Every structure is written in C-alpha cells, then in structure tokens.
Amino acid sequence: MEKVVPLAMALSVALWCLVACDDKGVAKAGNTVPRAPTLSPAAQVGQLAFFDKNLSGGRNMSCASCHDPQYAYGPPNSISVQLGSDVTKIGARAVPSLRYSSATPPYSDDAPNPDGVTSSSPGGGLMWDGRAATLAIQAGMPLLNPVEMNNTSKEAVVKVVQASTYAGLFKQAFGADVFNDTDAAFNALGTAIQALETEDLSFHPYSSKYDLYVFNKAGGTLTPAERRGEVLFHSSAVANCSGCHYTGANFNGNTGLMTDFTYQALGAPRNDRSIPNNPDPIPANDDPKYFDMGLCGPFRTDHMPATPDTANPYCGMFKVPVLRNVASRGVFFHNGVFHSLEQVVNFYNTRDTNPEYWYPASNDGSGAPQANPAWALQPTHVPGATLDKYNDLPQSQHGSLDEEVPLGTGEGGEKTLASGTRPRQPGSAPAMTPQQIADLVCFLGTLSDGYQPSARASATDRCTK
C-alpha cells in the first residue's frame, strides 16, 4: 500500500426520496453541507437526470438507486453487488461512493503520486479499473450496461430525455439543436451529471469530524481512541494506511482525500460459494475459469496478459478508494466480499499470518475443526489442511500481490511478492493487536461527513476511551 437555482433548491429534498434500494444493515452518512451555490443549467439537468428512474430500461431505477445521497452517494445496503434494472442479471463489482470523485485525475500507467516522493505507477481514472477518464464518460457507462440500467441504445436514452419534463432545460444548457445528434445528446447527458458532481457541494462537503480536527475548529477534538487510531493510520511500521490512503495535499488543490489514486493487488478472497453461508456470492464466480483481475481485465483490455499463464504486474490491481465516509458502507472491496470495517482491517492484519481465516481449504487436514474469529470469512479451519490462498487471482498472477505493511513484512524488494518483498509467515504475529484494530476503526469513523459536534456520544461508546 504505497504509497441551486430555486428549481434545484426545491428538488433537493423531494428528490432524495426517489431512490429505489432499501437500507438494510448500513448506517446513513450525514449530509450537512455548506450553503449550496447556484447550480448551472447543465448541473440542474444533471440533478434531475440523476434521480430519473425513466433513464433505466425497466423505468425502475435511477443513478441514485445505487448512489444514494443519504449514504454518501454509495449503496444503501450491504448487498455485495447491487441489482440492476433487470433483476435477473447480476454484475460482478461492488458500487463505489461518488463523493469526492470529481477530484480524480485521468488514468495513466505512469501517474505521479501526490505525495511527491513515491515513484510513478498506475493511477487515476474512475471505476474500479480506471477505464473511465472523466465523470461524464463514467456517467454514461451504467446507462448502457445490461447488468445496471439496461438501456438498449444511446438512442433509447436520448428519447427518454427528449420526452422528459427537463427537455427544455436540456436545450437551454446544450443548445436548441442538441437532440438532432444522438451521440452529442447522449454525451451531453454525461456532461450534465459531471457538472452536478462538480458543482453540488453534497458531492464534496468536507463536513466530517476529521475536518474540524485538522483545521482546529470547535467540536473537532478526537477521543483518546480516535487519536490512537489516527497515529496508527499514519504509522508506516504498524498499520501504514496513509501509505495508500494519502491525507496530504492532492491534485487540483484538494486535501485529505484519503487516497493517492493508485492501484494495488491485495488478494481479496473470491466472493463465491466457498464461503459458508455467503448471502450473495457473485454468479460469475461459479465459473472456475472466470477471474476479475482489475487493470488486466475482463472489463478493460489494454493490459490483458498474452496468455492466461503469463505473469502480468497489472493483474489483480484495483483502485485505492477514497476512505471518506467509509464507516457508512456495508460492503467493501471491488467484489463486495467484506461487510464491516472490522472485517476489512482484520483482513489486512492477518491475510498472511492466518490465511485460514479468509480462504477455503481442501480436506487433507487432520484433527477436529477449530473455530475462527467471528469476523473471519471461514468459520472454522482444520490444522494442516491445504489452503487455496489468494483464490480470486490465478496462481500465475500471485507475483502482483502487495506485501507491504501490514499485509506483509515490507522488507526486501519494492513492494510486491514478485519483486522480493517478503510475506509474513503463517502463524507469526500480525502487525496489529485487537485493541489497535479497534482504535483504527474508531478513527475511520471520524471521516464520515455530516458530523454534528453537539451530538454527544454514549458513555458506552467504545470509541470514547
């Protein structure tokens, strides 16, 4: 992990209610933001389109159905992969939050790191694999994806916009003749949503407790547990979170985004039926030959390996997400295999030292099954059983795996297994203690927007001490 006009103002409350997904198992993120500036005509179009269910093939979901403003423009539930307009078709990736996405630079294989020290590497771009260079391009992708909004063509989408109540505003923003060219009109719709995400402060409010703390404002005092967690977050020898989730000055004048926009291969477990009682395994993973390898496919093709067995340093790499509002999520990593922050941090801590917690095993062990911790994906393990480690990445691509602290030792090589960076040995001590993990989770909670200093914590809140 190396590093609004009256129209828009009136809609802001009513439109919040149009989302389609429910809110099972997820804590809502706050939406307190500074006074909103007047939105441009393009952004007003974007706001109306963002909540328009008619823009899906089944007229049953909008952008906000999965990017719910009450959940930091992320998923409103803990389902690994959100259902699309056609509920019989299920995708393969978790829905990311759209908050702070406007700060993301375009993808480059040789992107500069915002810390100014770390060597250039793959970075930038939108989507888990960076294949969208701009928010406008990204906004158009779900509209035509069969497992998302499931429209049959750009023409079908443009016809809906042309028949909508905001068609006149669309012409005002993009020209009276905009509907004469289908491609231009479709691209203009993406541009409108990009304008919304750029201009509307609810997409980048900077209203967390952490923001008050960093700028030394009233109500920003961290509790002892949160302060200990912050120290761990920046500790290169222990948690090393800031090695990738960079907190300093970033591109375009942004700061504290909690990402350096790079890509890492973490070896997340495969979200399939090998996980006992898995509530929503990804159907594509039923095919043992199918692998989602991020930068090297299947959704982007420019870095695909020459043959399935050819090692490729891009394989298994997924974008380092913004950590702001991470505590409001109920699903984590590109494949949604994890469902709590505690689980995620424990994975980082024990992936190498206790792989039996995370990966399936054969039946060649001996003795009685032993219980694993409650947060583990695998409820039990049999001593001596052969583990299918890093099972969501072909064996030939394991060299891409990140072995920096806390996953590995961080010693030797540059940072990956192939470069010679040494992993932690199974059975050795993890980098963090249970108390340190609890403290780190407490700190991550301070990154949620909409913080109200007047809201007193309960005396039983584990993050107060």
From TrEMBL:
Residues 101-124, 392-432 are annotated as: Disordered. Its main location: other. Residues 41-148, 224-448 form the Cytochrome c domain. InterPro entries: Cyt_c-like_dom, Cyt_c-like_dom_sf, Cytochrome_c_Peroxidase/MauG, Di-haem_cyt_c_peroxidsae. One of its GO terms (cellular component) is cell envelope. The keyword Iron applies. Keywords: Heme, Iron, Metal-binding, Oxidoreductase, Peroxidase, Signal. It is an enzyme of class 1 (oxidoreductase). Coiled coil: none annotated. The keyword Oxidoreductase applies. One of its GO terms (molecular function) is cytochrome-c peroxidase activity. Its EC number is 1.11.1.5. SUPFAM superfamilies: Cytochrome c. It comes from the Bacteria. It is found in: Cell envelope. This is Cytochrome c peroxidase.
